[in-house]
């Protein structure tokens, strides 16, 4: 009998998914099939972008890359130059202006009556690990705009466009990717079980697709580095029925785009292509509808696996109704931190239940004082208040530690205080399943029935172990 998978390597279902009904599985490449060492990749992106900005006469001396200060799932408020973390309902629970954390009073004043709506152009959702360098660069540029180091007049939204364009240029000019191809061991964290997972899926009759925004030369180099050594034939291309590069996601899933066939894999020569995709070929561009027509499949028969919450999961689910899987490697650290904190979490819940009971007794005692003719309450208001103050002294350090799990600045990626984070809500809404790496799917086999857990509601009974005595 096999031992159960550790929680951090689990596959979690928001909606029940029977893998036996899935006929084709599409994969993204970057941060999905190939996981990058985030600090190394994002530091390189940050440094390339600063060189682009320096060439445009922007002041970059003294800029530092501190990845631990930023988190996937934050939102940039382009009106105010703030980074914010919001709950699933869009209420801002933390914010920093530039690199300075806002106090509770500043937060309450600034965001009173404001909710984060991702459809509002005021807010920019940082929904992938590629945005760590973007957040770090933008926050420091806000500081420099405020202190006059970057001359105005310039709005925070214009400043974001400058930073974003510099990072885009660092990606598209090829210098950054050339650095990665030259030393992939420095940048990549390869899981050898990923190749076996893909081979098992093919054995089970699944048709596999690679659909990536990277160009052919980079895709060829990185996929060969990551997979050739693990594939019996020695070629990663034997894993996939169809390969699509330069896919221009999310447009790939929602629009019809021109498509070209790669007719010379060594030199990357292209020719226009019409009609269905053919098995074993490589294509540049195109669209998801063409994939469906080529495979003779639609909707729930296709599963797409990617790391980008919007470009890979949101649009795929909204436009095509494909089944969706989100890859989040950082989930492993978050689950491990929560497990290490588990005993303290139980104690925190017990103390909070005790506090709720004390608060209720205090409320009744205060009301009794206002009722004419009532006997004096058995407990004085002041005694109950003192008991609450004493209890808070025990709660505060535990609550602070819980709020710092995963990130001392922002706390857990998937939580916002006692609530789910806005990021978690988007995962819940658009990803049928989520997991930390592709190889975890292999642990469950291509025949797994992935059941969604029964969700809790506020009126569900409190677990006995945390109920007040």
Radius of gyration: 26 Å
Sheet having the most strands:
10 strands, mixed
Beta content? 5-15%
Mean pLDDT across residues = 91
Q: Enter the CATH topology name of one domain.
A: Rossmann fold
Assembly context of the chains: single chain
| Known CATH architecture of one domain | 3-Layer(aba) Sandwich
- Which blocks of ≥5 consecutive residues have pLDDT under 50? 465-469
Q: List the strand order in the largest sheet.
A: 1-18-15-14-3-9-10-13-11-12
Question: CATH superfamily of one domain, please?
Answer: HAD superfamily/HAD-like
**Helix percentage range:** 40-55%
InterPro entries: HAD-like_sf (IPR036412), HAD-SF_hydro_IG_5-nucl (IPR008380), HAD_sf (IPR023214), Pur_nucleotidase (IPR016695)
Protein name: HAD family hydrolase
Pfam families: 5_nucleotid (PF05761)
Organism: Jiangella anatolica
Please characterize this protein's 3D structure:
- It is globular and about 95 Å long.
- The two termini are 41 Å apart.
- The chain has helices at residues 38-55, 104-110, 131-146, 156-172, 175-182, 184-187, 193-203, 216-227, 251-254, 288-295, 309-320, 331-340, 342-370, 381-403, 422-430, 439-444, and strands at 11-13, 17-18, 24-27, 75-77, 82-86, 92-97, 100-101, 123-125, 207-211, 242-245, 259-264, 269-272, 282-285, 302-306, 323-327, 415-416, 419-420, 433-435, 449-450.
- Strands 1-18-15-14-3-9-10-13-11-12 form a ten-stranded mixed β-sheet, sandwiched between helices.
- Among the domains are: 20-35 and 189-329, 3-Layer(aba) Sandwich (Rossmann fold), CATH 3.40.50.1000; 38-182, no CATH class.
- With 469 residues, it is of the alpha/beta class.
């Amino acid at each position: 009998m096999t031992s159960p998978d550790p929680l951090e390597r689990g596959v979690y279902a928001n909606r029940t998914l029977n893998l036996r009904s899935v006929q084709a599985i599409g994969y993204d490449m970057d941060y999905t099939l190939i996981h990058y060492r985030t600090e190394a990749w994002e530091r390189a992106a940050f440094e390339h972008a600063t060189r682009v900005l320096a060439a445009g006469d922007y002041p970059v001396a003294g800029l530092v890359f501190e990845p631990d200060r930023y988190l996937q799932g934050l939102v940039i408020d382009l009106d105010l130059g703030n980074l914010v973390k919001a709950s699933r309902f869009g209420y801002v629970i933390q914010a920093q202006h530039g690199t300075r954390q806002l106090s509770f009073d500043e937060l309450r004043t600034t965001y009173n009556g404001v909710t984060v709506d991702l459809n509002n152009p005021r807010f920019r959702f940082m929904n992938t690990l590629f945005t760590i360098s973007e957040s770090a660069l933008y926050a420091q540029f806000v500081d420099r705009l405020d202190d006059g180091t970057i001359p105005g007049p310039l709005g925070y939204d214009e400043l974001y466009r400058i930073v974003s364009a510099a990072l885009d240029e660092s990606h598209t000019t090829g210098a950054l990717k050339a650095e990665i191809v030259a030393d992939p061991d420095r940048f990549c964290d390869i899981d050898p079980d990923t190749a076996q997972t893909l081979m098992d899926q093919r054995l089970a009759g699944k048709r596999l697709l690679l659909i990536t925004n990277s160009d052919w030369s980079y895709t060829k180099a990185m996929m060969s580095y990551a997979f050739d050594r693990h594939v019996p034939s020695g070629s990663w291309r034997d894993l996939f029925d169809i390969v699509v590069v330069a896919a221009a996601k999310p447009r790939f899933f929602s629009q019809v785009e021109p498509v070209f066939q790669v007719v010379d894999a060594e030199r990357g020569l292209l020719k226009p292509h019409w009609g269905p995709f053919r098995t074993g070929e490589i294509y540049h561009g195109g669209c998801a509808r063409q994939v469906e027509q080529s495979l003779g499949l639609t909707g729930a028969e296709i599963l797409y696996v990617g790391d980008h919450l919007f470009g890979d999961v949101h649009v795929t689910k909204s436009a095509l109704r494909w089944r969706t899987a989100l890859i989040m490697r950082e989930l492993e650290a978050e689950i491990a931190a929560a497990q290490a904190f588990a005993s303290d979490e139980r104690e925190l819940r017990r103390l909070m239940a005790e506090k709720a009971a004390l608060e209720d007794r205090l409320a009744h005692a205060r009301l009794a004082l206002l009722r004419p003719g009532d006997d004096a309450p058995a407990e004085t208001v002041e005694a109950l208040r003192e008991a609450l103050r004493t209890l808070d002294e025990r709660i505060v350090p535990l609550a602070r530690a819980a709020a710092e799990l995963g990130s001392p600045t922002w706390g857990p990626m998937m939580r916002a205080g006692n609530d789910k984070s806005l990021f978690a809500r988007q995962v819940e809404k658009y990803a049928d399943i989520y997991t930390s790496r592709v190889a975890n799917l292999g642990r469950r086999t291509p025949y797994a029935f992935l059941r969604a857990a029964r969700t809790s509601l506020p009126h569900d009974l409190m677990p006995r172990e945390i109920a007040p005595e």
